[in-house]
Design goal:
Blueprint lengths: L1 E5 L4 H13 L3 E6 L3 E7 L7 H5 L4 E5 L23 E5 L3 H13 L3 E5 L3 H9 L5 E2 L10 E4 L3 H11 L8 E3 L6 H14 L2 E7 L20 E5 L6 H10 L7 E4 L2 H22 L14 H7 L6 H10 L1 H23 L3 H19 L2
Parallel strand pairs: 5-6, 5-8, 6-7, 8-9, 9-10, 11-12
Antiparallel strand pairs: 1-3, 1-4, 2-3, 10-11
Helix pairs in contact: 5-6, 8-11, 11-12
Length: 363
């Protein structure tokens, strides 16, 4: 395996990366040129995740010279037994929080504690075997991992209020839909009290929310976005992979708070706004018998939680306004072509869209 670094990589960064590879039991052969640095890796690289290494800003690409043997091995992301996590605390037992609690209960030997504003949900989660106990001020200090699965502001409020009770060395991963404000406020709190806060966003969901729709399989093969304070801390990334292994994520994406919010405005928030606006056509009330897959795809997320999405949209309005202005600009092109009976322009912009799809996602 070789890791190709860009010319902006400093000697200290090259040294730290090589040191990390050596800690994984690999021998490093470093070749430095004017435009890039190449680190050749000798040894068993089967445990090295190329996507993890490529998430570093200084790394252009990671390539395997020969593929490691996978005979007798089942692919998985991390190893929970190496995480050292004995007790997990989940705050908010809705669809996301409930699914995290069930995943750890079903696929690990961790003790699972949980808390929800609705006490009846907590009681039911104990009854169905998901929770070992209710999360309280008295036992939160026993948690090695805490997952606040709440609205954005509620996450910040929880961290501020409970920080003195969280034990030193614990890992806190939130699930909020935006990361800039949460990370800005929670990083320094974690540093002050000696625990690690990492922004998180599982890219999974369902049409309906609430504990009764949660499942230990919700996150299987989906992406988990991780937003750490130090984007070069590979040891922390390895630890997070091990910690989250029971959830069955297919990949972990590492980025900055700014990049997260920019991308989510396009991939998630815009989809909800467009769907929510599309279903408002008066024609929609007569769609039965005329609709198929396209209609279902376009309207799936129109049915949303207006309280949660209002908070998210307003907090990320700068990125969202850019995406709205962009799509309005392109929609106007289609409208103008139709209004002026300009079939040549319509044909061109339709083809432009098809080619854009091919370029972005393939055929």
């Amino acid at each position: 395996m070789i890791a190709i670094l860009n010319k902006e990589a400093t000697e200290d960064q090259v040294y730290e990366l090589a040191k990390w590879f050596e800690e994984q039991g690999l021998k490093c052969d470093i070749s430095q040129g004017d435009y890039q640095t190449i680190i050749g890796l000798v040894g068993d690289t089967s445990s090295i995740d190329p996507e993890l290494i490529e998430s570093l800003d200084i790394v252009e690409s990671v390539r395997r010279i020969t593929e490691p043997s996978t005979e007798g091995k089942k692919h998985r992301l991390g190893d929970f037994k190496k995480s050292g996590v004995k007790t997990v605390g989940v705050v908010g037992l809705g669809l996301i929080g409930g699914s995290f609690a069930k995943a750890f209960k079903e696929h690990s030997d961790a003790r699972v504690l949980g808390l929800d504003i609705d006490e009846s949900i907590c009681s039911f989660a104990k009854l169905d075997g998901t929770l070992d106990d209710i999360l309280t001020d008295d036992n939160i200090g026993e948690c090695d991992l805490i997952i606040p699965a709440l609205y954005n502001q509620a996450i910040i409020n929880f961290i501020k209020e409970k920080a003195p009770l969280i034990k030193k060395g614990a890992l806190v991963i939130d699930t909020g839909g935006l990361k800039r404000r949460i990370c800005q406020e929670c990083y320094p709190i974690a540093e002050e009290y000696g625990f690690t806060f990492v922004g998180g966003h599982p890219m999974a969901g369902k049409k309906f929310s609430g504990y009764k729709y949660s499942t230990g399989k919700l996150f299987r093969d989906s992406s988990m976005i991780i937003v750490p304070k130090d984007p070069t801390d590979l040891n922390l990334f390895d630890h997070i992979k091990n910690v989250l292994e029971p959830c069955g994520f297919g990949s972990i994406t590492i980025c900055s708070p700014e990049k997260h919010d920019q991308m989510i405005a396009f991939t998630s928030e815009m989809a909800h706004i467009v769907s929510n606006a599309y279903i408002k056509s008066p024609t929609a009330r007569e769609h039965k018998g005329y609709s198929a897959g396209s209609y279902k795809d376009m309207t799936r997320v129109a049915w949303l939680n207006e309280d949660m999405w209002t908070e998210i949209f307003m907090e990320n309005k700068d990125n969202l306004l850019f995406e709205l202005d962009t799509i309005i600009k392109y929609l106007k092109e289609y409208r103008d072509a139709l209004k002026h009976k300009d079939s040549e322009t319509l044909h061109r912009i339709l083809r432009d869209g098809k080619l854009a799809k091919e370029e972005v996602d393939g055929i």
